DNA sequence: AAATAAATTTAGATTAGTCTAAAAATAGGT
DNA sequence: ACCTATTTTTAGACTAATCTAAATTTATTT
């Protein structure tokens, strides 16, 4: 079907499209893929020939219908495997990304379906991201960043924006996990830090932290 | 670490070494890998530079200590995944080979260990082949081919030599599965076929079949 | 609107893995 | 021991994915 590299580009474009609806630039894609702009141009041409993306020179790329469908399939597999690793093999949520990056490219419709069934058709991966179903549908939660909450407001922690091992381990260390309620006690205008209440504990967190935690209000 | 292709060559050499202890020929390897002899020579050179095989021009190859260890790790993963697919995801034993061929290349020591633990440290895969443990040790069963049994002898079916989907489905259709007792009622010298007794049923099977079924006698 | 800066593409090279065709080495038969 | 057939290796080419460096296009600034 498609190569690992092609699938990785599609996934990257999919994610970047959320940020740049007008079209994903070559440089943005190069940064996301940790490669050079010239390599990106080459690959985009190939994806364009295969009708996976819409591309006009110098104008950036967008996923075609087919490209979108393909990207979602890869993301579905990635998130199902992450769920499997955490729920069945006792991995911590900070250890699963790199392994899922490999597993997401395994080609077998039946495997994906059976895995989904075995896991009980989970709706979200360990980082709170929605898992697309077999038809490619997934819920787009009405979540917001903790940093956007005002003083005295509260919400449930539902996801992380940064899912690096470093950030996740920081959260573990401070006993912040998905599903817990967080209330903003104070906001410091000077540095953007905030004092929060979580499980009876008061905790001061920097803006970098609150900018990477997704919250659902009420 | 090593590429998919390198790992596949190591695995192929490992399997062929059982047949050709003196060294695996370029042509034998080419046939096993379904590629050309010239491609094999190129790859052998690379494996030799990486000290995975012992190679002298025109003399065939053998796995080095490192090559052997590496091949066994890949085989361990292949068989663990096959077990997973059959026991946890309800795959039939004839459907798992190609998927395991992909999964065997996933790189993560921890994943392999946790999967092994999750599965309860199984000793054999769905085709009766032994699963190497974390140290690379596995039992070499004292099995023989059904075709080698004489009239009136019996044994337990413990494995298959050919694990193609076609052969396995033939066995399913005739209700022959691992663990069942088979008794040889008659042997036909002319065509090598035999009449066997399995679960009260009498069945005539060709030599091609009896040559691909492993039996353990007491 | 021209000059400059930034982004993007092109040209040409590189590596891994493969191929075909030709050359070289080994093995077998007499 | 020689001739022939088979096996194996070498030489040169191809594709996918990448790179550097140069050229081109677009964007920004004055």
TrEMBL record, chains A, B:
Pfam families (alphabetical): Fe_dep_repr_C, Fe_dep_repress, FeoA
Stretches assigned to the HTH dtxR-type domain: 1-64
GO molecular function: DNA binding; DNA-binding transcription factor activity; protein dimerization activity; transition metal ion binding
First-listed, main subcellular location of the protein, grouped into a coarse class: cytoplasm
A single cellular component GO annotation: cytoplasm
UniProt subcellular location: Cytoplasm
InterPro entries the UniProt entry points to: DtxR_MntR_Metal-Reg, Fe-transptr_FeoA-like, Fe_dep_repressor, Fe_dep_repressor_sf, FeoA_core_dom, HTH_DTXR, Iron_dep_repressor, WH-like_DNA-bd_sf
Function: In the presence of manganese, represses expression of mntH and mntS. Up-regulates expression of mntP.
Family: Belongs to the DtxR/MntR family.
Subunit field text: Homodimer.
The name this protein goes by in its record: Transcriptional regulator MntR
Organism: Salegentibacter holothuriorum
